[in-house]
Specification:
With 513 residues, the protein is of the alpha/beta class. It has helices spanning 13-22, 31-39, 47-51, 66-73, 79-87, 103-107, 114-119, 124-134, 148-157, 162-188, 242-255, 284-294, 312-317, 333-339, 395-408, 434-447, 467-475, 489-498, and strands at 2-7, 26-29, 45-46, 95-99, 140-142, 203-208, 218-222, 233-236, 266-271, 274-280, 302-306, 323-328, 346-349, 359-364, 367-372, 386-387, 416-420, 423-428, 456-459, 479-482, 502-505. The protein is built from 18 helices and 21 strands.
């Protein structure tokens, strides 16, 4: 029996080869893999001794040869294939262990040049994998080093069964599809327009009990994009649900403005993918207390997320509230002890997510709508903001307006948020008219015991009419931040001047459909 080993990721390859030799397998190998095996005294035949050609062109050409692919593709039950192999001196290859040049890892490094990236596009590796996977009835094909041990165990007791061979082959095609998708993404990502073809590869990370409703199947699939939910680590509690994961993602988006150079302790309380509380403070416990005060009623059964370490005092502050999930970049040991008092509470660590530009996909029947992912940094450039009213904001109002503008982008449109002292006091979300959202934000603030008098207001998109401003002024709002851009901007600004309000126009909207 003959095995061909050619790997970039050399985890476990020496032990795997040694086990094969002990089982009386013959090892053929290439370049660096052969050298690694020889250093460990594993007997190996160089690929050049099989093909009769040296590796050439800096390793670009070494396995693209009939004596390799004939040995992989020859059908053992086909007389014509067997005769051709015998005629041309082709020895069957019964096992292939190959993993590919580290293309994704290479292009992830900012200093990588285009020429360097091109050299990391593997040709021979995918070709061998596909040949072996196509003929998996006769060839065992391994692309994942984690599969070495189970294959050896099967060989020790007899053979690798048909179902496992097919599973290994399926893994190969998934792997090569993802590899090609990464290359396509790299070659098209610098274009000013969206690429004509997109290839999305998703890996199932977690099966879920059900989807949005119990009769719907569901699972969490992740991509190879910059860090996201795939980096989540659950510390406690029952399995995360489909709806939990939607809310965790919404929480990560809501906290994004307070990261990097703008990092300050922040807490957001998410219900049905939109905030019902959000605040900044000196520490996590105070941020939670202030966010909870936004709307205590809606916070029941919520997902609560932080952008900072959750300590014991924060956990104790949350003890009396029914919460579905707690999310933070880190939960310390003493806090976890408190959370573990509630067996169904899910506690999740999720690293702070960056603001990297990627594409955002929304599923529609028969396809996807694709756009640039919303980045708060794209709407936070204060050099483009304009005071449109006679009255200018005070320093205190400026702080609240900045916070309100950061917070409103996470709220479903039509979105209005009322803010005092860098905490939301009233949120109007998902209404069909902006004046209704203004009314709802004021109503929610008063229902929670807040006084809107002196608050500032943020609107995610322009006011189409002055009625939203009139509603805010009647409640005591003193400053407004909004994108502007309505044909009735002059009327809206005049209304603000009538009520002696300050109004900032940012020039960019934060609409979330």
């Amino acid at each position: 029996m003959r095995a061909l080993l050619s790997v970039s990721d050399k985890r476990g390859i020496v032990q795997f080869a040694r086990e094969l030799v002990n089982l009386r397998w013959e090892i053929v190998s290439t370049g660096g893999t052969a050298e690694a095996l020889r250093r460990e005294q594993v007997p190996v035949i160089g690929i050049e001794d099989v093909t009769g050609f040296p590796e050439m062109m800096d390793g670009r050409v070494k396995t693209l040869h009939p004596k390799v692919h004939g040995g992989l593709l020859g059908r053992r039950d086909n007389p014509n294939d067997l005769a051709a192999m015998q005629q041309h001196g082709i020895t069957p290859i019964d096992l292939v262990a190959v993993n590919l040049y580290p293309f994704r890892e290479t292009v992830a490094k900012p200093q990588t040049t285009f020429a360097q990236a091109i050299e990391q596009i593997d040709i021979g590796g995918p070709s061998m994998l596909r040949s072996a996977a196509k003929n998996h009835a006769a060839v065992i094909v391994i692309v994942d080093p984690d599969d070495y041990s189970s294959v050896i165990e099967d060989l020790k007791v007899g053979a690798v069964g048909e179902d496992k061979r097919r599973a290994l082959a399926t893994k190969v095609f998934a792997h090569t599809a993802a590899y090609d998708a990464a290359i396509l993404g790299y070659l098209t990502r610098s274009q000013e327009t969206l690429p004509p073809t997109l290839s999305i590869v998703l890996h199932q990370q977690q099966s879920l009990r059900y989807g949005e409703n119990p009769h719907q199947r569901a699972a969490l699939y992740v991509t190879d994009e910059p860090p996201g939910l795939r980096n989540m680590h659950q510390l406690h509690g029952k399995e995360l649900s489909f709806n939990n994961l939607l809310d965790v993602d919404a929480a990560a988006m809501a906290l994004a403005p307070w990261s990097g150079k703008n990092a300050r302790p922040a807490c957001v309380i998410i219900k049905h993918t939109t905030p019902c509380g959000i605040a900044l403070a000196r520490n996590a416990a105070d941020a939670f207390t202030r966010a909870l005060a936004t709307d205590r009623t809606s916070a029941f059964g919520s997902v609560i997320a932080f952008n900072t370490v959750v300590d014991r005092s924060t956990a104790l502050a949350m003890r009396d509230l029914f919460v579905e999930v707690v999310v933070a970049p880190r939960v310390d040991a003493e806090a976890l002890v408190v959370f573990q008092e509630k067996k169904n509470l899910r506690v999740v660590e999720l690293p702070k997510l960056g603001d990297e530009p990627t594409l955002d996909y929304k599923r529609v029947r028969g396809g996807f709508l694709v756009q640039d992912r919303f980045l708060y940094s794209g709407v936070a450039d204060e050099s483009k903001w304009r005071v449109a009213t006679t009255r200018r904001p005070t320093d205190a109002q400026w702080n609240d307006l900045r916070f309100a503008w950061a917070a409103v982008g996470a709220i479903k449109s039509n979105a209005i948020v009322l803010v005092k002292d860098e905490a939301a006091i009233g949120i109007g979300a998902g209404q069909m008219s902006r004046v209704d959202s203004s009314f709802l934000a004021v109503h929610k603030a008063k229902a929670a015991g807040h006084d809107p008098n002196g608050a500032v207001l943020a609107s995610d998109a322009f006011f189409p009419f002055r009625d939203g401003v009139d509603e805010a002024a009647a409640a005591g709002v003193t400053a407004i931040i909004q994108p502007g851009g309505s044909v009735k901007d002059a009327e809206v600004i005049a209304a603000a001047d009538e009520h002696d309000l300050a109004m900032i126009l940012t020039g960019m909207r934060q609409f979330r459909h």
